[in-house]
Amino acid sequence: MIGKEAEGGDAFLSGRRPLLSIKDLQVTFIRQRGLFNRRKSIVRAVQGISLELFESEILSVVGESGSGKTTLARCILALNRPDSGSIKYRNNEVTALKGGELMNFRRDVQIVYQDPYESLNPRQDVFTAVSIPIRQLAGEDSKEKLTERVAKVLREVGLDPSAVMRRLPHQLSGGERQRVNIAKALAPDPKLLVADEPVTMLDASQRLGVLSLLMELKEKRNLTILLITHDLASARIMSDRTAIMYLGRIVEVGPTSKILNKPHHPYTQLILAATPRLKRSSEVKREYVPSVEEAGRVERGCVFAPRCKYATSICRDTEPQLLAKSESSLAACHNPLNVNQATSE
């Protein structure tokens, strides 16, 4: 097992066994382009990720589009099969689960998808959508008990069962649909909730409400939450620890407050600088950096080197390892930032 220092955990993680442990995960896809002259290319979506998630914590995985966050989440949920590596839930190998063991795993590990419009069947009312996982994963067939459980979980997510239970998705607002999705995920009483960009499709007035709801549910149910997001504001509000992901790799991981206040990796600094602030456009200093697609063809060295203003020759020749740069944070960087300040603290 990877220890606290090696995994970037805070002091409260010391001596605890991880609920979920990922080691050396690799996932590749074959991409085909062209209508007549078909060209194939290999997409390395996840490259050697090792990560631990501890019971009743919120861990955010942050990165821009194309970084591999959703692929990582789908592997954790046993929806995608990795090429190699290990995913263990309560010390059981997820990739080897079958039959009843896989059913038990699906009851314990649920997901909230980012799109509240696409993730609900437009022909199913709220009662049907929320009751399906209770019937299939919890084995409850009694109509009376199903109604009680659906009503209870709807109230838990802030919805009035008498008002929404028989409504179809198009009769709900975006925020209500996402709350129904959360209720659907909570219905089989999971231990781990994967929230994949849960507020991206919501307007500003609804986002904070959904994030606050997830935090309340975490405390009430003793949930463990893996938050997948590109939004550092969501990570700052919710998470105990944050892992920064770039082109299939974890480039920095540690306590959220320390990572966001004094990042060690230049990519973390870059996405912090890109976070919207209340400044006049004339006050914002703009620097050109290649996009993630432009930088994605790196054959050796650090994958972030083409976008990094601190890159040196070693960055272009040698891939950096994810190593401790301060007491509780790791970064994969040859020229880490804020190391002296972090060490002196």
Structure description:
This protein is α/β, with parallel strands linked by helices. The protein has a single domain, classed as 3-Layer(aba) Sandwich (Rossmann fold), CATH 3.40.50.300. The protein has helices spanning 4-7, 69-76, 99-108, 126-138, 143-156, 161-164, 174-186, 204-221, 232-238, 256-261, 266-273, 313-317, 339-344, and strands spanning 18-33, 39-54, 58-62, 84-89, 92-93, 109-112, 192-196, 224-229, 241-246, 249-255, 323-324, 330-331. The strands form two sheets. The protein has an eight-stranded mixed sheet, with helices on both faces. The protein has a four-stranded antiparallel sheet with strand order 2-1-4-5, covered by helices on one side. It starts with a helix and ends with a helix. Residues 1-12 and 278-292 have low confidence and may be disordered.
Rg over C-alpha atoms, rounded to the nearest angstrom: 21 Å
Helix content bin: 25-40%
What's the number of structural domains? 1
Give the terminus-to-terminus CA distance: 28 Å
Number of strands: 12
The percent range for strand residues is 15-25%
- By CATH reckoning, the class would read Alpha Beta
Placed side by side, the strands forming the largest sheet appear as 6-7-8-3-9-10-12-11
Give the ordered list of helices and strands. HEEEHEEHEHHHHEHEHEEHHHEEH
Please render the helix and strand layout as text.
Layout: H1 4-7, E1 18-33, E2 39-54, E3 58-62, H2 69-76, E4 84-89, E5 92-93, H3 99-108, E6 109-112, H4 126-138, H5 143-156, H6 161-164, H7 174-186, E7 192-196, H8 204-221, E8 224-229, H9 232-238, E9 241-246, E10 249-255, H10 256-261, H11 266-273, H12 313-317, E11 323-324, E12 330-331, H13 339-344
Parallel strand pairs: 3-8, 3-9, 6-7, 7-8
Antiparallel strand pairs: 1-2, 1-4, 4-5, 9-10, 10-12, 11-12
